[in-house]
Predict the structure.
Amino acid sequence: MKKSRDDYLTIFFIAIAATYILATLALPMYAILSKSIENKEGLFIGLSNYKYYFSNPSLFYSIYNSLFVSIITTIISVTLSFMFAYALTRSCMRAKPFFKTMAMIPILLPSLLAGIALIYLFGNQGVFKALLMGRSIYGPIGIIIAEVFYTFPHALLIIITALSIADARLYEAATVLRSSPIRTFFTVTIPSAKYGLMSACFVVFTLVITDFGIPKVIGGQYNVLAIDVYKQVIGQQNFEMGAVVSVVLIIPALLAFIVDRIVQKKQISILTARSVVYEPKKNKTFDLMMFLYCSLITLFILTMVGMCLYASLIKFWPYNLSFSLKNYHFDLMDGGGWDSYYNSIKMASYTAFFGTIIVFTSAYFIEKARTIKTARIMMHLLSMMPMAIPGMVLGLAYIFFFNNPNNPFNFIYGTMAILVICTITHFYTVSHLTAITALKQIDYEFESVSSSLKQPFYKMFFSVTVPISLPVIFEIGIYFFVNAMTTVSAVVFIYGPKTTLASVAVLNMDDAGDIAPAAAMGMMIFYTNAFVRISYVIITKKVLVKFQQWRTK
Amino acid sequence: MTHYLTVKNVSKSFGKFQALQNTSFEVQEGELVCILGPSGCGKTTLLRVIAGLEEQNSGQIIQQGREITNLPPDQRDFGIVFQSYALFPNLSVKDNITFGLKTRKQSNEIIEQRLNELLSLIGLESHKNKYPSQLSGGEQQRVALARALAPSPGLLLLDEPLSALDAKVRQFLRSEIKNLQKKLGVTTVMVTHDQEEALSMADRIILMNKGVIEQIDTPQDLYSKPHTSFAADFIGKTNLFKATKNTEHSLMMFGQNFECHQLLTQNELMVAVRPEDIKITDQITKNNTLSGVVKEIEFLGSYSIGLIEVSHNNQRKSLICHLPLDNNARNDLKKNSLVNILLSPQSLKIVNSDLQI
């Protein structure tokens, strides 16, 4: 068939999007792979870097430690969040919205802050140090507690979704067949939430094994793979070896990612349009137990945040407990001062703005165009890749790729642009999936109608698709903003002297021993994210409603 | 007469699945043609190929003397209404209808005038500022129709336009659309799986099965002169029997001789008989009668349906026949009673068949 003007425009845009994703993802990843088989002079030396690295016994400790911490965290975090999600979806306890909101708090914080909170709570001068009975928080215990805190909301969101698609008819059938509640739980509840649980496990595992902020702050002498990358690059300036560890670090993340994708595909097939939504029934004892459990978790979360807030507001822990704002005088410390904070705001805003446009437009073409199907499928697969790549590895790949003098885009190295691009790529997949899911719910015949009426697709896009998708577009924007504010791993290698960031400042101040200012800066990030989130809720309630009148019957 | 639309040998497959096999037909100007068939028969694919939304593997499509086979949808001249209506939910009725008018360099007055024309055509003048979600299903359907008609396309394509509606609304809109179509004289191709809809609306019906056109005929002829066992069975209810040729105008069935009006050419025959053409009779004549046992009577208001079992050589076969009410009232027509039935020479329709019965 002849190509229409729309088809040419589509091909043009897909080509741009493909070039973008190749330049910001595929080529940098290629750069890091090739770097790992080069020596310092840039000559090809095959696998000798790997041989050298694998002959080093400390590596095996790192791998063992990484796996140990990741697996234990996964078990604890998924168990706790499953119970929490169960309480939210299957009980009639009070204050569900409150608990759900509180459980989301860790998402708004840089992961480092969890480590800092633990130092104040259980560190050498910690409030509850006695609870550890002589064991040290610096090491696996601290890492695991902090990682559980950090991964809890991520697991919770997935499991809530899995539990809320329950089919009431199955439960009715079980009741009619006189199945005991415990039997029903194991034969109905667990199997139908199985894929969600598995998905949560993979997500938590990947988050933990690729995270380096928490082990850095509270790991003490306990080495993990992510720390190895950091040490090789920042500590020893050994980029080739950093590349080697990065490649090693990608393997578990990539495996978890692939298995997760397979599992996710199955999840969709168990959903049927005829399912009846499950409504929990009142049960005083059970509801009370669930309420107490959720209160306990919420108390833990609030204690962690509250401790940081308190620590940031007092003069000198634990000797001078009078209130002061001196910890917020960032300009007097390492880490770039208040400029870091303003840079972060700028970076997060740019990321949200450009990231949302890039993600949503690409997703639109991938999902709705009717031409060049193979290219669109390839684009979708490429868009899924960033999820499998640890932020630090991506950052390191950007150094190799963009710092190369032969790269025509070399000029963005050390600027705000590279931070924005790296962050967009790092958080691309989740945003892409959100956009695709939303676009899938829009009638596929819209494009057909529009072309039968001889209107260009962009008229359709701007006057129908975008207005309909506004809530999702905002959701993606906020996701980018919040994550850009908190991310350390994606940017720690590529920020420049003029582009220091708040999240990195937390790391550097903590490194320099300024823990209270680090907590204060972490809290600044929290205030900002909380402000953005709350404003969003208000905006959706008040303003968006005005533009969404057509939704009401 | 000139053909407005000609579809020649169009084939389309999705992977190994052959959705359309060498389909050919013509549509006259101003005609309303229904493509009818069970789900998966390729009827929607055919419509989408005509619209250019699906690309055929081979074949040719000509509209008003212009070859459109390889043109993208926006270079063809048609308006389309989908099963889902695909109304833009965030645009008002007015904006939906004028969506296709705006960039055509038309002045606002002309657009406004056209809008009012269309609104009065569909009888929704007072709803022009409402959003689709505030309208009933039938109203939404009419807005979709008005939107498709707004740029005055030469060809109107309707993809199951009524199937999402309640039975009552559906019946009302059938005649509404039919009248509108006649009034505007727009050539229309409509896809449906509902035989009643096709019979009541179409000038001609294209009956499809498994990617192949079984028969193209007026509704009356399709019903009374089905060419194939599929046509006989899909439209209305039919009894299908195997028979063998006796002479040019008589055949053997259940060990009985039956006279038949049609000229018989083959030896192995497939005979279709409509339930309403089977008569209960008191007389046993030499030809064209059978005796059987009433197995079931199903009361359906204005008439009843009887299931009559006929046996021959230890083989049993059930016939469906209509029982007028006065028959039903008769005392002797009860379950398990013996009856004689008459299959008149006109009622026997010889059809082509690939069925094994």
User: Anything to note?
Assistant: The longest helix of chain A spans residues 57-90.
